[in-house]
Design brief:
Length: 376
């Protein structure tokens, strides 16, 4: 499907959003639901919640690599905002791809204008890495499906209106019995958690919710048992690459800031950058940045071309998240006390890198994936 926007138009809209809605003062915590709703509405106005959504559903039909590029740029300023925008766009994309248009049109236009916010819920208090162990239960009834259970650590859950919820339809059946449903926060049986989760990636609006006798109508079954697990893994594969791209963005911006600071700050009669010991730390970061960026581009290109990308995606995420984990604290340190100022993103990026190593497959899960390909 050809994109209805050129790369130059995407960059223009992206920079418009950054100029309008990503001022450093607006990126400081704590999480303010009203402020984040407004920010997501501006993102939607720039087309950022409809990047991959097909034109016949009101989106732009852009290739995956455009989404990765947008994720990278947004995360250079704030990982949490990037996650919030991309996760809402993913919901619009999933609904338009997998539901009949008459059903998906109940939510997709709202997600594209930012009137609605979406999120995807797999994780539960007792099931994270082991997704097949989820216990949120879906029982088929005359009206549809009755859902019971709890989800936790879900991006956008503090404000979202539309939740894609994975649930077990046949306890004991593992992956085979998992299905996915569209859940509306405004309906009976949905209760949002009021717990504050973490200040890491605070603007991702991460939270949780409970379903108690929530009824999803038959048409609100997004993925049936037998298909849901496979489709979730496909989505997670894509997510690995944009999370890696986000790490590239955070590293790139932090290196840029440290480079500039090294030119203007002097110690012992010369600029920081003139001290060999100081600049080598930046050179180390530059090496891994280049390598991470190349891996992300290869993986994104493989997704664009529809060729198998699981191995590349896992390698890109493992490498980029670890590069961010390793170099961001070093770049922060290289700026002395100055790096800790709230006007810079470095401290937020350090915490966000930790989040990046967990979401959409922790480093250990990626190593397992890569091992599988080694056939050992
Ligand atoms: C800010 C944030 C946002 C998130 N957003 C979402 C979201 O939108 N939707 C969603 O569904 N989930 C989301 N998650 C959840 C995320 O996907 C999980 O944190 C992740 O799957 C890991 O699960 P866990 O935290 O329960 O860790 P666990 O599964 O309990 O694992 C704990 C540690 O043990 C390691 N480990 C586990 N099993 C093995 C093994 N077999 N071998 C070696 N090591 C192992 C893990 O890698 C990890 O380091 C989010 C998490 C965070 C922090």
């Amino acid at each position: 499907m050809p994109s209805t926007r050129s790369l130059a138009q995407w960059v223009e809209q992206l920079e418009r959003f950054c100029a309008q809605a990503m001022h450093p003062d607006s990126l400081l915590g704590p999480y303010d639901a009203a402020r984040e709703r407004k920010r997501l509405a501006v993102a939607a106005g720039c087309g950022l919640t409809g990047i991959q959504v097909a034109p016949e559903h009101g989106g732009f039909g852009a290739p995956y690599s455009i989404k990765a590029l947008i994720a990278q740029r947004l995360a250079s300023l704030d990982f949490g905002v990037s996650m919030a925008v991309i996760n809402s766009q993913n919901v619009a994309d999933d609904l338009s791809q997998w539901l009949p248009i008459a059903v998906s049109q109940r939510w997709v236009p709202g997600l594209l204008t930012g009137d609605l916010i979406g999120c995807t819920a797999l994780t539960e208090p007792a099931a994270g890495s082991d997704f097949s162990a989820i216990t949120t239960h879906a029982v088929q009834t005359a009206e549809g499906w009755r859902l019971q259970g709890e989800k936790t650590w879900i991006i956008n859950a503090q404000v979202a209106d539309i939740f894609l919820v994975y649930a077990q339809t046949e306890p004991g059946s593992g992956a085979a019995g998992i299905a996915a449903f569209v859940v509306e926060a405004k309906r009976e049986g949905f209760e949002r958690s009021i717990e504050t989760f973490t200040s890491a990636a605070a603007l991702s609006g991460t939270g949780g919710f409970r379903l108690q006798g929530y009824v999803a109508q038959t048409g609100e079954l997004l993925h049936p048992p037998g298909l849901a697990f496979k489709r979730a893994l496909e989505s997670i594969n894509g997510a690995r690459v944009y999370v890696a791209a986000m790490c590239v963005g955070m590293l790139q911006e932090s290196l840029r800031i440290a480079q500039a600071y090294g030119q203007r700050r002097a110690t012992f009669g010369q600029a920081l950058a003139q001290h060999q010991g100081w600049r080598w730390a930046l050179a180390e970061a530059a090496i891994d940045l280049e390598a991470a960026s190349a891996l992300v581009q290869r993986a994104a290109q493989a997704i664009d071309e529809g060729i198998p990308s699981q191995d590349l995606a896992a390698k890109a995420k493992a490498f980029a998240t670890r590069a961010a984990q390793r170099h961001l604290p070093v770049l922060l340190h290289a700026m002395g006390a100055e790096g800790l100022r709230d006007r810079y993103p470095l401290l937020r990026h350090v915490a966000a890198a930790q989040v990046a190593t967990l979401v959409d497959g922790s480093t250990e899960m990626l190593l397992e994936r890569i091992s599988k390909n080694l056939k050992i």
